[in-house]
Amino acid sequence: MSRIQVNVYVNRQKYHSTHRNSRFLDTFHLALITHALYFYLITSYANPLALLFPTWSILSQVYVTCISDLVVRLIYARRVWMISRNMFIAFLVVLTSAVALGTGIAFTTLAFIGKTYASLTHISYLMYIALGGAVAADIIIASALCTSLARSRTGFKKTDSMVTVLMLYAINSSVLTTVCSAACFITYTIWPDQFTFIGIYFCLSKLIFNSLLAMLNSRSSLKRMVNGLSTNDRTSARPAEFSSSWVSKGTYQMQDGPRSPVVISVDTHVETRAVV
Fold first, then answer.
1. Neighbours of 25 (CB within 10 A)
2. 245 φ, ψ to 5°?
3. What are phi and psi of 247, to 5 degrees?
4. Which of 101, 113, 155, 257 has the most CB atoms around its CB within 10 Å?
5. Helix (H, G, I), strand (E, B) or coil at 231
6. Could you tell me where the DSSP H helices lie in 115-237?
């Protein structure tokens, strides 16, 4: 699924620098995970002592995950600001994302110094803060987008249906990442001495990046929907047909005669703005 989305996205975009850097981080993250799995499952097969020490790649992927997640959430923060024009909400998204980045980097740096998985128990609070910040950022993004879009309802059926679709996109782009971050947080809290949370954490960066790709890939379909609303709708009223003539004493009298229709035409134009 990830490769398909990347191929579709590459064909539709013109290599924007931010998106190109995000793809590089995603590829590098996958390479680090592959190296870590190869080390534990192939190179250190049947060597239980290897499980006592984290390899450099499994710690380095936390750096990449934190940076990649920050880039994606900054894109969403810009989207929130462009839709809501609420600087405070956008600042909250940036703040919680920065907290997740800072604590994640601090956790990984101290893990390199500790050199064993047992030492991670002394700095577990940093991981809790990082995952909590990620969950908070995703919830704020989804809530802000849905609230701003809900206020944009006009009362027209077609326009409101498009707003509903946009709200569903906003929710779907954040719900999986929120659930994944919460699941990682819960499993790390319940089983801090096991590797259950690591498997979930591996997927977190992929889900966040794929949510961004899904949002970008949906723009063409949303554009077609908007263009369908922007076509001119002409509503013709029943012609008011009459003729008139002057009669004696200056009175104005309606009479039957040649009919001249009066047509009322209503043109509807919808102005849209693409938000990335």
1. 20
2. -150, 155
3. -120, -175
4. 101
5. coil
6. 124-150, 157-190, 196-217, 219-230
Note the pLDDT tens digit of each residue in 96-140: 999 999 999 999 999 999 888 888 888 889 988 998 898 899 888
Token output for 59: 């710690």
Examine the pLDDT at 181 and tell me if it is beyond 90.
no
Q: What is the dihedral of CA 45, 185, 66, 62, to 10 degrees?
A: -20
Segments forming the whole domain that contains residue 126: 2-230
Q: Is residue 246 in a domain?
A: no
Q: Rounded to whole angstroms, how far apart are CA atoms 165 and 167?
A: 5
User: If we measure between CA atoms, which residue out of 220, 239, 238, 236 comes closest to residue 228?
Assistant: 220
Contact between residue 253 and residue 247 where contact means Cβ atoms under 8 Å apart: yes
Q: Is 91 within a domain?
A: yes
Q: Are 43 and 60 in contact (CB under 8 A)?
A: no
Q: Is residue 164 part of a domain?
A: yes
What's the domain count of the chain? Answer: 1
53 located within any domain: yes
Predicted pLDDT at 106: 95
Is the pTM for the entire model greater than 0.85? no
pLDDT over threshold 50, residue 29: yes
